[in-house]
Amino acid sequence: MAKFKIITKKDCFFCEKLEKWLAGKDVDYKILDYQDPKDFDDPLMKNPTFNSLFCDMSACVEGIPIIVKNDKDFFYSEIWDLVNNEIVEEKAREIFEL
């Protein structure tokens, strides 16, 4: 079974939508708030692939939520229908193996 980390921040519309969508589903996930210093102890924050994809010299993780599968696969825009501000159910189920 895959393990997930979801990078979020407070007052994030899409983060809240994803958490509500995941509620009650059998998905093993951990929330990491990129604005919370305690979450920067997570090894993901030192992962060179994660940093090269989602960080620049000024900041990290501007586009969120980011879904991290097994600490090696990263997903962001793939699950969003940005016209309707909804989750693309089929893609989300594929990523989360539901």
Report what the structure shows:
The structure is a single chain. With 98 residues, this protein is α+β, with helices and mostly antiparallel strands. The protein has a single domain, classed as Glutaredoxin (3-Layer(aba) Sandwich). It is built from 3 helices and 6 strands, in the order E-H-E-H-E-E-E-E-H. Strands 2-1-3-4 form a 4-stranded mixed β-sheet, with no helix packed on it. Strand 5 (80-81) and strand 6 (86-87) form a beta hairpin. The protein is globular and about 30 Å long.
Short description:
The chain is of the alpha+beta class and 98 residues long. It has three helices and six strands; from the N terminus they run E-H-E-H-E-E-E-E-H. It has helices at 13-22, 48-54, 89-95, and strands at residues 3-8, 28-33, 66-69, 73-75, 80-81, 86-87.
